[in-house]
Amino acid sequence: MKPNYVILVLLVFSILGCSAARMNSNKHTAQNIISTIDSSFQNAILQYRFLKSNLPINRFPKSYDANGKGLITSSSRDWTSGFYPGALIYLYEESGDQKLFDEAKVKLQVLDNQKFNNRTHDLGFMMYCSFGNAYRLTKDIKYKEVLIESAKSLASRYNPRVKSIQSWDRIKSFVTDDYWDFPVIIDNMMNLELLFFASKATGDQRFKDFAMNHAETAMKNHVRPDYSAYHVVVYNPENGEVVDKQTYQGFAHNSAWSRGQGWGIYGFTMVYRETGDKRFLKTAQGMADFFLDHQRLPQDKIPYWDFNAGQDGFPSSWNYDASKYPIIPRDASAAALVASALIELSQYVEKTKSAEYLSAAETMIKSLSTPTYSAAAGQNGGFILKHGVGNLTKDREVDAPLSYADYYYIEAMSRYKKLKDGKLNL
């Protein structure tokens, strides 16, 4: 054999060996993550059994205050009401514990009346995270009917001139004496999945058109050139023109509120899944890359509440006590949300990007599963995750457990396991 042939053969074997080593390393990493997830699921089940034991039958868990208030609950009208039954359904799917599903069904009965609520844009959170998961698992026609009625209520908030679904009813500006006639928040991207479902379930194209138009309007006006997002965009409902761009929960009007960035990543990824429109995929990727590449994202990938927080002090109008929160808090809810979104997004992009997104999701899940962020059984009021931030600008639920943090953490773990089992069906 000639020398150059020997070199070529050795090179081929070297490449194959490196490739095999990488495959073994990736397989080992995935196995470690699965082991972590299995352990975290067992803890989550214990927590939610404990949470259930302290929860009134007609109330929904929202947060927990270890310094006096204890368990904080809400009625079915609160935007967070769907997360608890949705989380229970995921946990039942993982464990087969019928008592968890029975509890979910009790809460669905309490939540059922919200299908006629046309005073909120949050019906996607409230009804799709709960009844949507119940229908996915059981295919029970009564859950489908609730979802369709809920979509009708949500669609009633659509304005054809703005080409968007109104988030809040007319409300006074948070920084001036003016009123916002048609405010839209980036969070609203998450509610579009309910409309896409209703379009497929009924054959009514209008639901899909409303969702697509809303996403296009958000892509145009909420998403900045660097792919960070405004929280609130205010429109003139008569002509659809943009009146203002502000924040309610972020550090500043031009800052990048981390959970808002997560709503965008998740929302635009979902819209791409439902439409196949590459513009939405590009936007989801841009927003994900902004999040993951940001110089202020900590190594464990659990973001600060806002990427710009603390750079220039705090607005005097905020109800913020620097002595109470001397360190800018992390937001576990944003990390859980983004982890779940990245697992889905990893399925729609080229191989290198897919590996990058999946690796980031793995890091987030591992970090959230450590004692730093996950509570021990019987602690934290029964909630799984610690260190979430509800609304720091109003000093609400800061460095606290949150029902939606738990929900997206459970969803992320469920998605990851299904992905590795070849059963992820979004």
Number of helices: 12
**CATH domain class:** Mainly Alpha
Mean pLDDT: 92
- SS-based structural class? mainly alpha
Weakly predicted, low-confidence segments = none
Overview of the molecule:
This protein is mainly alpha-helical and 426 residues long. The chain has helices at 3-53, 83-95, 98-111, 123-138, 141-155, 192-202, 205-221, 258-275, 278-293, 332-345, 351-368, 403-420, and strands at 60-65, 70-74, 158-159, 164-165, 171-172, 179-180, 182-185, 232-235, 242-246, 388-391, 396-400. The strands form five sheets. Strands 7-8-9 form a three-stranded antiparallel sheet, with no helix packed on it. β3 and β4 (164-165) form a beta hairpin. The model has no long low-confidence stretch (mean pLDDT 92). It has one domain (28-420): Glycosyltransferase. The chain has twelve helices and eleven strands. The N and C termini lie far apart (53 Å). The protein is globular.
